[in-house]
Amino acid sequence: MSVCFSDRLTQRILATKSVTCVGLDPRRQSLPQGLQPGEGASVADWAAGFETFCTEIIDVVADKVPVVKPQAAFFEQLGPAGMQALHRVIQHAHNKGLLTILDGKRNDIGSTAEAYADAYLGAGEASVWGSDSLTVSPYLGADSLDPFVAQCDRRNAGVFVLVKTSNPGGGMLQDRSSEGQSVYQTVAAKVEEFSSTRRGECGFGPIGAVVGATYPEQLAELREKMPSAYILIPGFGAQGGGAQDVLAGFTSAGLGAVVNSSRHIIFAHRRPEYADKFGEANWQDAVAAATDEMNQQLACVFGQ
Ligand SMILES: O=C(O)c1cc(=O)[nH]c(=O)n1[C@@H]1O[C@H](COP(=O)(O)O)[C@@H](O)[C@H]1O
């Protein structure tokens, strides 16, 4: 890959006029009936169902959004068959021109983190996964992030470091203060340090941050503290975040962030407002409608 991750993301955002990230979180019990393999099905049957589900979603949203975020956990639940499905889902997204954020929230001590970085962000035959970017945890310290940053440099990959997560309990650690600074502020400063020396043409670097839509005040604060970092904003839709909550994450040109929604888009056929209109058999149309709706709700970021 010859172009910086942040520039590739920016190009896709401008081309699609969308800041929506569609989260691929396949859950057995929520799959459309037609894709549920039935009683006594093997994990391989479920993996096939997940793969069909995710690739069909990709086909629907490929021209509507810049990026998709497969959540590794749901594929890992299915063992090797699930991991192979995940691999093919990532490839399918790339074949359709989408960027990928693999949501694995990985990390370990530096020497092991190197293996994670190589596994998920490596290139060609060296990597089974070859994702464009990966979510990573900062809780083993700055040296644990170095291998991921090195991989960003080597391969023009990207990472999103957990800074202020969307869940209610995240504050237990992230809001803790010492020496006048909270943990999330300390992590944000590190992210900015990494990205500020690696800015692409768009003005942002490849080391991004995760900040939940459920914390709009902190999002505004963190946008200011990390002017060089792309922000992945989860928590839109099913977790209660709305367009007004995420506005502060963007620059006046509508750049610098992408907003993830998983359940509200991929299982839109189960939402009352779409269930009657499309029915379960037309779940792909519900995905398209929910994606269009989110794009419309977020169109305001371009006109701030
Ligand atoms: O890293 C993430 O993507 C993430 C971070 C965070 O703070 N909160 C959060 O919800 N996520 C992920 O974003 C997705 C949210 O899914 P929905 O609540 O269904 O939109 C899930 O895959 C979560 O694992």
From TrEMBL:
<dbReference type="InterPro" id="IPR013785">
    <property type="entry name" value="Aldolase_TIM"/>
</dbReference>
<dbReference type="GO" id="GO:0004590">
    <property type="term" value="F:orotidine-5'-phosphate decarboxylase activity"/>
</dbReference>
<comment type="pathway">
    <text>Pyrimidine metabolism; UMP biosynthesis via de novo pathway; UMP from orotate: step 2/2.</text>
</comment>
<dbReference type="InterPro" id="IPR011060">
    <property type="entry name" value="RibuloseP-bd_barrel"/>
</dbReference>
<feature type="active site" description="Proton donor">
    <location>
        <position position="105"/>
    </location>
</feature>
<dbReference type="GO" id="GO:0044205">
    <property type="term" value="P:'de novo' UMP biosynthetic process"/>
</dbReference>
<dbReference type="Pfam" id="PF00215">
    <property type="entry name" value="OMPdecase"/>
</dbReference>
<dbReference type="InterPro" id="IPR011995">
    <property type="entry name" value="OMPdecase_type-2"/>
</dbReference>
<protein>
    <recommendedName>
        <fullName>Orotidine 5'-phosphate decarboxylase</fullName>
        <ecNumber>4.1.1.23</ecNumber>
    </recommendedName>
</protein>
<dbReference type="InterPro" id="IPR018089">
    <property type="entry name" value="OMPdecase_AS"/>
</dbReference>
<keyword id="KW-0210">Decarboxylase</keyword>
<keyword id="KW-0456">Lyase</keyword>
<comment type="similarity">
    <text>Belongs to the OMP decarboxylase family. Type 2 subfamily.</text>
</comment>
<keyword id="KW-0665">Pyrimidine biosynthesis</keyword>
<dbReference type="GO" id="GO:0006207">
    <property type="term" value="P:'de novo' pyrimidine nucleobase biosynthetic process"/>
</dbReference>
<feature type="domain" description="Orotidine 5'-phosphate decarboxylase">
    <location>
        <begin position="19"/>
        <end position="278"/>
    </location>
</feature>
<dbReference type="InterPro" id="IPR001754">
    <property type="entry name" value="OMPdeCOase_dom"/>
</dbReference>
